[in-house]
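Continuing from the previous page of notes. For each protein in this section, the sequence appears first, followed by its structure tokens. Read the first protein now.
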Amino acid sequence: MRILISLCMVTMLALMGCATVDKAIDDVNSGLNTIDSSLAKVDKAVDTVANTADRVATTIDRTAATVDKTKDRVAALPEKIVSAITADMKHTVVKGDTLWGISMRDNGDPFSWYGIYKANRDQIADFDLIEPGWNLEWNRREAGKQMNRQRAFDEPAK
């Protein structure tokens, strides 16, 4: 193709009255070099665009994967929250423990001590007296219900 273009240009320049064929050939070669240089710049620009497109595609794929993982983790949150709220709890009494303190630490509310007491009545005769070494077990949700019942019982009539 390049040879054909060169021959056409040389012929045109010769017909237009160029002084010598060598001058015409030099002019054609100069024009071809300019075209080659421009094509090299275009090729470089195309490569740059292709590399950028590849990086963008990789970033999009990684972002999509992260979004999918995040959606799965967020979808699992309600189950984890319900599990934490309704969990069966266990505690081995150590010296200095009180039902109030255990319920505050393990249930997040000291008033749920009554639920722990009710769940362990087989061991606890007096809620003010718990012994080190006792293994207490209760359901966090049930302890909360007992707490609400006890509060309702303790509130004065209006």
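Done with the first. The second protein uses the same format. Note its length before scrolling.
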Amino acid sequence: MRHEELGIGVVQFDRTFTVANAPSAVGRSGALIYVSNGASGSPCLAVSDGTVWKQVAITATTITT
């Protein structure tokens, strides 16, 4: 799971997963992935607890431009 550092403190994931094709979370404690349909069908981040992926909800708009 690679990411690209954009030089301004922003990380852009180079791969998008779905609930169906997300890799195993086992042994990946602290890993972070982008899931296009993870929060009741909406995009979210997920973090591994070493066993399963835990949803990190994306709730409010931060930047509109």
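What the second structure shows: The first strand starts at residue 3 and ends at 5. The two ends are 28 Å apart (CA to CA). We return to this in next week's lecture.
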